[in-house]
Structure formats: structure tokens, C-alpha cells
Amino acid sequence: MSERLTDWTKGEEAITYQTCISCGHVQYFHRAFCAACGASGPRAQRASGKGRVYATSLVCRAATSETRAHVPYNILLVDCAEGFRMMAHGDDDLAIGDSVTASFKPFAGRLVPFFTRS
Question: What is the pTM of this model?
């Protein structure tokens, strides 16, 4: 069975990922198996929170009533230092290629990763 660390999805200020002990594949979405080789029990690890912006999109229309108070907000794809890509929130002025560091902010009633320029 794969190890599970608590992270932002459970309200803790942390980002976690998994590494396969058989092939070394790094994956962000937690699974009981490696998405690359199928081996069971990938090891959970805590990420450094450092990365580089891969893509950015400024959201100007609220999808729900809970997000209306946050418009406009920036959604990013971040290539994290550990080798996985994740979607997160970030400062509005971030651009592709910017070096970023994660913190955590409340958004629509949940604690979410929020990236700022390093």
C-alpha cells in the first residue's frame, strides 16, 4: 500500500507528490500504483514548493458564486523542482518562465497553493 502524507487537499500547508520505488517515475496525482510501470506502493514525499511557470491564464468570469469574490484570479501550470507539473493559483503578473515559490491562501472556502515570483 502506498504511503500518504497530508497536504493542501486536507488543509495542511504542504504539496506532496509520489516517486516510484521501482522505476523512479514522479507523479503528482496520488495513486496506489505507478502510472509509468504499474508497480505498487509509490513513495509519498513533500515538495519544496519551488518551480517555474509553464502556462498562465487570468480568469475573469466566476464559475461559481463562491469564486465570484476572487475574480480576476490567475491559474497557473507550474513545473515543480521535483519533476511534476501542477495546476495552482498565483499572482496576476506572473509570466511563462518565471521562477516561483508556493505559499498557501484561502480561496472559495479552501486552502490552496498560491505561487509568487521567487
Answer: 0.90
